[in-house]
Amino acid sequence: MASPPKNGARKPPPRKPWRPISSYVDDILARAHEPWVSFQLGLREVCRCRPGGIVVVMGPSGSGKTSLVADLLVNHARHYGPAVYLSLELEGDELAARVVGMQTNASWEQVLKGDVPREHMVHASNIPRLVLVEEEDASLASMRATVEGMREVYIDEPIVVAVDYIQIFEADEQEHRQRVALVMKALKRIAKQLRIVVVALNQMSRENARIARSGDKLGVETADLAAESAAIERYASNTISIGGIKNIGDDGDQSVQLSLGKGRMGGGDRVLPARYEGRTGRWIIEGDSRPAAEVKAELAEAKKSNAVEGALMSVLGAASKLTQPTTRSDLVLLAHCNKQLGYVAITRLIKTGELVEVRMKKKGTGGGWMICPPELAKETQLPLLGEVPS
């Protein structure tokens, strides 16, 4: 039996863990005026997030994650509200060089070497609502203090905070997965308390980076490419994954697919075509977003078409070396290509007349007619299938 409270004090009633749905109406209306954050590159929207949410940006090493987030923050700070960049890895002058390079069409190296005129650098970096907290100063405490300071100056303007990157952010837990989960939980709590949007950069594992580069996963499938994906998927409102990377220039230019994976408020499971200028760090949207399933079907068809073209070349090369007609299966073996693709290639080549069927079958088999190039059939004076033997 529990002992009575001391000094006659009454024990407070236990907290009820439930609320009726109708009680949330006033909560909704109290925050209905809050502007949502529209993340844009140029004039094109990448995604939209409600205050209190977390947008996770992920991609392989060297894919331009930092530049992408910097570009999004520059746009936000110039047009909508304060932006805070917490950089735990990149030094402040290097991040500033990227911001300057994007807007002056100069490489980071040119900026860091002072090859860009000072007045151009000052003009490009004159973004009062964009601030940087770097290295040892980047913590949850400084994040809170910076947001509160910005809000005193920029009242009622939407605030965005980028954390680069979450795997090395502060946490008491030493085990890697648990630490990331604690960091995401802490970021979610502070985002809700301060009514800000957090952009969290995430490093991929080597295997997931390979999958992302190849473009084998698109749209919502990319949400689990983040390291410690369970924690990411639990706390993220939106995920943006950089993938389908193809080099298109000598100076680091890349054709990229931005997969909009998770979208808690809609707009997820889509793919946005983009280009990353490796020299300057600038990101450019090159088309409208499309359903991931549609893009994936097109890519699968393109891969199949390319594979068939490769098989066609291999089969033709093998056929050109024949000294006598052969069977389809033997020609596929000689061509060293996939069996199914090899048969498809042979069928197409027969239709175009680059291979012909002759009235000869392999001895001891009940197989089909043998095949060879038309020149070889003429040289060996073998009648073609469908011709009347002379």
Summarize the structure.
The protein is α/β, with parallel strands linked by helices and 390 residues long.
Question: Could you describe the 3D structure shown?
Answer:
This protein has about 400 residues and is of the alpha/beta class. It has helices spanning about 25-30, 65-80, 90-105, 110, 120-125, 140-155, 175-195, 205-215, 230-235, 290-320, 330-335, 340-350, 375-380, and strands spanning about 35-40, 45-50, 55-60, 85, 130-135, 160-165, 195-205, 240-245, 255-265, 270-275, 280-285, 290, 355-360, 370. The strands form 3 sheets. Strands 3, 4, 5, 6, 7, 8, 9, 10, 11 and 12 form a 10-stranded mixed β-sheet that branches. Strands 1-2 form a two-stranded antiparallel sheet. β1 and β2 form a beta hairpin. α2 crosses α3 (about 90-105). The chain is elongated. The model has no long low-confidence stretch (mean pLDDT about 90).
Keywords:
390 residues; 14 strands; two-stranded antiparallel sheet; single chain; alpha/beta; ten-stranded mixed beta sheet; elongated
Topology overview:
Blueprint: H1 25-31, E1 37-41, E2 44-49, E3 54-59, H2 65-79, E4 83-87, H3 92-104, H4 108-112, H5 118-125, E5 130-134, H6 140-153, E6 160-164, H7 176-194, E7 197-203, H8 206-214, H9 229-235, E8 238-247, E9 254-263, E10 270-277, E11 282-285, E12 290-291, H10 292-319, H11 328-335, H12 339-351, E13 356-361, E14 369-372, H13 374-379
Helix pairs in contact: 2-3, 3-5, 6-7, 7-9, 10-11, 10-12, 11-12
